Amino acid sequence: MDTYFLFFIILTSIFIVPQILKRFNVPTITATMLAGILIGPFGLNIIESSATLDTFAAFGVIFLMFLAGLEVDNETLKDEFKNSLVLSLFSMLIPSIGGYLIGQYFGLDFIGSLLYAVIFSSHSVGIVYALMDELGLIKSRFGTTVISASVVIDLISLIVISILIKMGGSGITSDIIPFVVLIAAYIIALLIIIPLISKLILKELKKFHVQKIHFILLIILISIIVGEHIGIHPIIGAFIIGIAVSEELTKEEHDQILNENLNAIGYGIFIPLFFLNLGMTTDISVIFNFDNISLILVSVVTLIGLKISSGYFSLRILDYGKLKSFCGGLLTVPSLTASLVGATLGRDLGILPEKFFVSVVVIALLTSTVAPIYVKSLVSKNYNKLKLN
């Protein structure tokens, strides 16, 4: 297929499908994923995923995580630290127990069951952040609590997945502890070094806004290259860079860099391509494979039930109202990036059998499409009642 025509189809899908589905209260991210399913090889087979599209999509999730980190209000985060910690602990530990028990029941070994437990506990910062942004709740106390908890859980999930993959690939050896120390050193180094460098460089580039963007993109890429060399997933570095850079930006710089430049680059092309490509590579026919139906049903029902209940009760403990707590519980349901990364690596290394990989794909598909639709509808109908400010 001609390259120009390929991108014409992609951009047309990204533009038209969300506009149509917006009338039915479907979030943009969900609509973009559905557009990918529609035009992809498992739908109408109009286009297929390619190395170029995969690269653009990879930049999309990196951009999304960087913007999520950049949007974190560090002062509000400090104020809401206790709330975020309580929500993250409840919505991480309780679902992970369910995931581990399911893994054991369906025949996984110890490492495989731990990996399935981590996948169960993972959230989707990308979906939660994009949905909160669409609903205008990013800067709210509720939004900060939920996003911060999702960030903590996804970071822990990705770090633990990296450790389990290393253990599964080489066995439980003495090099695991140095690897954990290396991950911690990587994160701490970014949080210390990047603000110092950013303070100096951004001061020199005060009047050169284009060069500021170049500098930010450069440090994102450097952190990713270093992280991948160590064995850390790129979105960890991207998010940490976002937090680190945010520390050194004035409000004017933050608004200009974020709203006028990076949001336009990210949401204009890269981020929609991530969600579109995700839809294109999702084989919905796996849902109808009866060989996997018992594992899929048990996993989906258990995950949704445990996540909603753990999120709901943790927010109730923190004195949020019933409706707000229910919305928060629903927002812990989407499971996408970390779960798919873990499942793919686990399958490739033989830690997870194919039926467990299929189960994770179905979970990701259902939770990342249905939950956002319901949350958007619920929030839209009860916005004044919720008073999310």
From TrEMBL:
GO cellular component, one term: membrane
Main localization, broad class: membrane
Coiled coil: none
Location within or outside the cell: Membrane
Keyword field contains RNA-binding: no
Transmembrane segments: 6-21, 28-47, 53-72, 84-102, 114-132, 144-165, 177-202, 214-245, 265-288, 295-315, 356-375
Keywords: Antiport, Ion transport, Membrane, Sodium, Sodium transport, Transmembrane, Transmembrane helix, Transport
Stretches assigned to the Cation/H+ exchanger transmembrane domain: 12-380
InterPro entries the UniProt entry points to: Cation/H_exchanger_TM (IPR006153), Na+/solute_symporter_sf (IPR038770)
GO-annotated biological processes: proton transmembrane transport; sodium ion transport
Topology of this chain in the membrane: Multi-pass membrane protein
GO molecular function, one term: antiporter activity
Protein name: Kef-type K+ transport system membrane component KefB
Organism annotation: Methanococcus maripaludis
